[in-house]
Amino acid sequence: MIRSLSIFAFSILLCISLIQFSNAQSSQDKRIDSLQTFINDNYRANWNAIPDSARLLLHLAQQINNKQAEADANKYLGVFYFRTSNQDSSIFFYSRAAAINKELGNTLELAKNTLNIGMSYKNLGDFERTVENSLEAARYFEEVKDYKGISIVYNMVGSVYYYQNRLDEAETYMRLYLENAIKAKDSYEIVSANQNLGAILSASGKIDESIDYLIAAKDGHKKNGNKLGEATNSINLGIIFYDKEEYYVSVPYFEEAYEVAKELDNNRILLESIVNLVGAYSNLDRHSEALKLSTEGIALAQESKDEYMEMKIYEKRALSFTNLSDYKNAYIALSNFQVLKHSFINIENLNNIADLETL
Fold it and tell me: Of 17, 179, 298, 321, whose Cβ has the fewest other Cβ atoms within 10 Å?
């Protein structure tokens, strides 16, 4: 009888211990959930809140062997160091997160971790490892049929090849970017892919082919309500036709950019529109419009202290006066152009000298 009571008492104690352990684990789980919510709510705007919270999350996760929370904590630390330009530490923590997610079979998170490792290498200028990790991430994204993830990978690989002036490879991956953005039905990635592909084709000398993609990008920006993107692509298209000496085709694009820039109160885009419009109007013998707009542009450039754009406007203004046989005013405009040009060149030379002195 005494033995039975002892066993019974031991069972009660064991049960109480298990309940206490369960309650402690439940408390830890709640703290982990709270920390993850806090980090997710703050990591984009409040960087200083991340490291301590992520390290505490890591400690708690390891205490109760919560592997997914441990992977997330490492990911958060990777994000922090990536955003604060400590790429070596970023790679270290992203790699730890990737290893745990691989062990857990969490392929989507593994893909994201691997892509982020590639991005860190890109910031370090190690393009070989950037491409290597990016393409590995693409394979993981393909396993879970995450087409947006695949598209983001190919955009990065294409961008790396573009920076290296490997334009054929850049074009190949930008086409894959567009293909997978379409599969993902992501309107913003589709617009970005069209814009990037258009830029690469233009840089490759495939001007006529680039036009369709840039038009698609401009129309996509307009549909998405991105007026700045719309104006930028209008200028790019206008410049293509301007360089082909199809000034009558370029004008509507520059005028569209001009109106959008006015609406946005964006002086830089407005000045680029004005410079190009003054040149196009001058070449179309629309000199009164060119001179009126150049006066507006010079005032705006001086107000914005943008000597480069002011210089370009004086150059176009001189063309209009020359075409009108008003050589006096053409000389004044050209003189102002030369003064600004020398000033601009001198500033560039001083900057170059300063760069040399810091080597």
Answer: 17
Q: Which helix (H) or strand (E) holds 288?
A: helix 287-304
Q: Which residue has the tokens 């009571």?
A: 5
pLDDT digits (tens, 9 = 90+) for 39-93: 777 766 677 778 888 888 888 888 888 999 899 999 999 988 998 899 999 999 9
Instruction: Give pTM, 2 decimals.
Output: 0.78
Distance between CA atoms of 79 and 309, rounded to whole angstroms? Answer: 39
Classify 46 as helix, strand or coil.
coil
Spatial CB neighbours of 126, under 8 Å, sequence gap ≥ 6: none
Query: With contact defined as beta carbons under 8 Å apart, do 305 and 272 qualify?
Result: no
CB burial class (10 A; 0-12, 13-18, 19+) of residue 167?
Answer: middle
What is the per-residue pLDDT across 149-207, written as a single tens digit (0 to 9) for each?
999 999 999 999 999 999 999 999 999 999 999 999 999 999 999 999 999 999 999 99
Helix (H, G, I), strand (E, B) or coil at 284: coil
